[in-house]
Structure formats: structure tokens, C-alpha cells
Amino acid sequence: MALRPQPNPDPAGGGRLRLAAAAFDPWRPFRSHADAFTPRDTIPWQAKAELFLRCRTSEGYVGLRPFARIRRNVAAIVEALRLPAGARVLDVGCGPGLYCRPLAERGYRVTGIDIAGPVLEYARADADRLGVSARYERCSVFELASEAEFDAVLLLDSPLCQWAEAEQDEAFARIRRALVPGGTLLCEVQAPGSGLEEASIREAVALFPVSPWCARPHLWLTRRLTFPEARQQVVHHLILPEHGPLEEYWSRSSPYRPDAFVQQLARRGLEPWAVVGAGLDRAPHAGEECFFVYARRRL
Questions:
Q1: Buried b (16+ CB within 10 A) or exposed e, 134-173
Q2: pLDDT tens-digit map of 201-230
Q3: Do residues 94 and 24 lie in contact, with contact meaning Cβ atoms separated by under 8 Å?
Q4: How far apart are CA 234 and CA 212, in angstroms?
Q5: Could you tell me the domains of the chain?
Q6: Which of 99 and 23 is assigned the larger pLDDT?
Q7: Prior bond of 39 cis (ω within 30°)
Q8: What is the pTM of this model?
Q9: Beta bridge partners of 294
């Protein structure tokens, strides 16, 4: 099954794709302010979970980090946390177990939680097939009821910056309660990237035979919009199947700069002790799309 986009499917020079992309013209321009993209996230994670699992290549899942990058991240996390064998680790939003499995293979007692049943079933079957001991539960971070149960909590590749401030307060309160005193949270945070200073729209369109959005041939237009007055960004997806109506999804986020997010964690009873860039092995660089923060639950 070919999963790579085909940006030039027409041997005559890409004219077919350009003509098909014109079907998106009624959506340009689309909504002139950030609040028009409400609710903040309309991506149907549960409904698309089974299709997402089909979209796997030897390098990784479409839309997620490559397996090689996950392996490097795990090695960096293990080095930074220096947890003893048998330490209890919680992965919030674990998906198909990309972090849970290698951490369990290293001797940690790992629990993964997610809201999408199909990816949890896949992760359980994968763990059983490999003889890896990992526990998976269907649960959102807003339902997490653990009390001082985990030595470390991972919040990676999550919709954190799509949550409103009250939702973030609730999520971090539950994560803090789930950690043992002195336990560590590793949190991935969306950064402004190239900046929020100017309004901008960036578009990319590709033709896919199948993707996490649609099981039939379709055009996928991704629009990245920046709203400086609200200091927010929107990723807007328009999916046009070969046959059928157009589908529309988006996520609206409020990126953080590292110093601002560190202050937010401190306010929520977590003590940041390291901030690293996208490679998890150095200080964050300007222009990166994300950074990572290690923080302890205060004693």
C-alpha cells in the first residue's frame, strides 16, 4: 500500500493536481479570526483510529514521528530520568505504544492511557506478541484518578496547546496527583516556530491513495494559519475524496515560549528542572516547532 503523497501525479507536469486543487478555491480565504475555529479541536481521533493504524510504513505511522526518532527520544529520556528498573511510568495519550513498548523492554513498569480503543487494542496485541509487559487503559487525562502512583509521567505529542487554560489546569492537577512526591513529568510543548508576529497562511496540497483521513483516493490540503493578535495558530485540513463530499477538520493552538511555559508549570505545583530542544539533547533553538520540559512534583 503506497502511503506517500504524490505531488506530481500527472506526467504532463502536474496539471491534473493543480486543476483538482482548484476545488478548494471556495475555501480561500477561510475565516478571518482565530475564534472562528471553535471548538479548538475538531479532529475525530477515535473515529479515525482504525484507519490511522492502517497507515503504517517501515519508517513509521503517517502523521507521527518516525520510529528511528522515537528510539532516539527514548534513549534520551532514559538517560535524563535515570530511573531504576521497575520504576512506574505513565504515558498519557500513548497511541499504539510507541514509547510504552521500548520503555517496558528496558524494565520499567509502564502504563499507557488513550481515548481511542483501536490503538489500545493494537498496543496490547503488539505487547503480547513480543512478550512485553505493559498495561493499557482507555482513559483521558481528564479522567485520570491515580494518587502518587507513578515515578514519571510522559505527556508527548499531545494536544496540550489546544486546551484552554482551565483544561490545562485540570490536566496538570491530575498529573501532579498521579506522580509520587519528587516524581518527574516530561512534557512536550508546541513552540511558535517561525513566529507569531505576522499574519500568514501557508498551504500544501497532495494526492493520496489512502491516509489517516480517508480510505479512498483523495486530495489533502493542509493550511497553516497564524493569528498574531490572538497569538494562536491553526492547522486546517480539507479532504476531498475522489467521490463524495469534502471533509473539514482543524486544531487551534496557543504555542508557548519556554520561559512562559516554565512559569505556568511552577504555578501548577510542578518544579521545572530542565528545558531541552526538539532533539531532547540540547537547549531549545529559535524557530523550532517544539521543546520539552522536565519538571518534578514538589515534595
A1: bebeebebeebebeebbbbbbbbbbbbbbbeeeebeebbe
A2: 888 888 899 999 999 999 999 999 999 999
A3: no
A4: 19
A5: 15-43+194-253 (no CATH), 67-192+255-297 (3.40.50.150)
A6: 99
A7: yes
A8: 0.90
A9: 186, 274
